[in-house]
């Protein structure tokens, strides 16, 4: 299992390069990614969005899929969108919060 | 304040906060800059609205609306700063003749299809992002610099929206053709945003007073440095390439050159002068009057109603 966690870390790192469309903060630092699992040549991503009415859901999913497909031996990406637990600002990383602060946007 | 002293101060990091820190020349250059910025932001909306109802999905429509709302917000920032500097903004907005507006010539055209909205975002918002990003980094005017934090971030959102629309469209042969067609007229239009070539105008009050940091050609290079690789990556051909020897982007067609307004087509076999380009800008494009009148319509109707009842 430890081996798996380590290999999955590279996908978390990859998603650090995928930016939220509205705020140039990664989807990882926004706290949108709940889980990443590698199953054979498919990556299973469990994620959420900041709001059910988010107009950028397809955009974000497309960017995530595109980036993960750039990883070696990844041939498919399955994205499962969940609404429970719901996203709140508490899910943002410290790095994400710091960036919000530079734009004068509260993350509390 | 004496001109040279103020120039020296702003170039060593002094931030201008109020009119007591300026001289007449600074104030004039600042007002001119903010008027161009405000007009550009506001007049970007009417062309976007010409194809807004062609959005392929509800999500695209919401995103386009969010972008237009952002642009109006950015315009509001520029006009509010102008108001604080003593300008009569209502007069500027509602009683100015269409041909006196300072928005880019490229915004005086209606768009032909949804794909053009994408290219508009990817090219023109990138130009805005380049110009305003430079102002954000370098401007000596404190109130503007602080307001640009929000603008910078939002323009990035717009240009990325354009990239997504272009990238997606390139996967469909019919839409890919629309992307190429849109790019063919919009690419040089975007390059014109940055104004006259440096060898014709190397210094300006804008630069001397550090309202902006980079010269026109430097900003044009910056735009090219992200637009060209992006277009190459999705298979859109553009009339510019990176030259390894000079480490600069080179425009492969005569620039500036003449533009066939009716067919939205550059006439590469007819090179032009910047003097003529400025003349074309001042004559304004085909939809200038209609777009400005659209913005002024409500205010004028309300004014007439007030006259009627008084």
Automatic annotation (TrEMBL), chain A:
Source species, domain of life: Bacteria
Ranges for domain MIP18 family-like: 12-69
InterPro entries in the cross-refs: Fe-S_Maturation_MIP18, FSCA_dom_sf, MIP18-like
PANTHER family associated with the record: FE-S PROTEIN MATURATION AUXILIARY FACTOR YITW
Taxonomic source organism: Domibacillus antri
Name assigned to this protein: Benzoyl-CoA oxygenase
Automatic annotation (TrEMBL), chain B:
Pfam families, per the entry: PaaA_PaaC
Single GO biological process annotation from the record: phenylacetate catabolic process
UniProt xrefs under Gene3D superfamilies: 1.20.1260.10
GO cellular component terms attached to this protein's record: cytosol
Transmembrane segments: none
InterPro entries: Aromatic_CoA_ox/epox, Ferritin-like, Ferritin-like_SF, PaaA_PaaC
Protein name: Phenylacetic acid catabolic
Organism of provenance: Domibacillus antri
Lineage of the species this protein comes from: Bacteria, Bacillati, Bacillota, Bacilli, Bacillales
């Amino acid at each position: 299992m430890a081996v798996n966690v380590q290999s999955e870390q590279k996908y978390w790192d990859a998603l650090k390069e995928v930016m939220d469309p509205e705020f140039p903060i990664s989807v990882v630092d926004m706290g949108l990614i709940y889980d990443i699992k590698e199953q054979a040549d498919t990556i299973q991503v469990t994620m959420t969005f900041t709001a059910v009415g988010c107009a950028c859901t397809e955009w974000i999913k497309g960017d995530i899929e595109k980036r993960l497909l750039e990883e070696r031996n990844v041939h498919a990406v399955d994205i499962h969108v969940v609404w429970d637990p719901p996203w709140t600002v508490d899910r943002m990383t410290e790095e994400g919060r710091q960036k919000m602060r530079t734009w004068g946007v509260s993350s509390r | 304040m004496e001109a040279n002293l103020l120039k020296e101060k702003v170039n060593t990091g002094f931030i201008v906060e109020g009119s007591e820190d300026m001289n007449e020349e600074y104030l004039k250059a600042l007002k001119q800059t903010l008027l161009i910025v405000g007009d550009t932001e506001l007049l970007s909306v009417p062309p976007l609205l010409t194809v807004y109802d062609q959005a392929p999905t509800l999500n695209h429509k919401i995103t386009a609306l969010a972008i237009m709302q952002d642009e109006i917000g950015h315009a509001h920032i520029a006009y509010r700063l102008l108001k604080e500097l003593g300008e009569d903004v209502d007069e500027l907005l509602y009683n100015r003749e269409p041909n006196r507006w300072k928005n880019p010539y490229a915004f005086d055209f209606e768009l032909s299809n949804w794909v053009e909205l994408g290219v508009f975002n990817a090219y023109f918002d990138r130009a805005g992002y380049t110009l305003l990003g430079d102002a954000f980094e370098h401007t000596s005017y404190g109130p503007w610099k602080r307001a640009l934090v929000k603008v910078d971030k939002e323009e990035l959102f717009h240009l990325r929206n354009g990239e997504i629309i272009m990238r997606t469209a390139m996967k469909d042969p019919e839409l890919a053709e629309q992307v190429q067609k849109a790019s063919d007229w919009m690419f040089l239009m975007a390059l014109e945003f940055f104004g006259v070539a440096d060898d014709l105008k190397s210094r300006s009050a804008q630069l001397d007073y550090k309202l902006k940091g980079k010269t026109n050609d430097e900003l044009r290079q910056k735009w090219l440095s992200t637009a060209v690789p992006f277009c190459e990556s999705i298979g859109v051909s553009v009339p510019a390439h990176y030259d390894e020897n000079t480490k600069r982007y080179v425009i492969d067609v005569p620039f500036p050159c003449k533009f066939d307004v009716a067919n939205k087509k550059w006439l590469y076999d007819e090179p032009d002068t910047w003097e003529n380009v400025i003349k074309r800008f001042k004559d304004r494009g085909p939809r200038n009057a209609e777009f400005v009148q659209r913005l002024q319509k409500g205010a004028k109707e309300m004014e007439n109603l007030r006259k009627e009842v008084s």
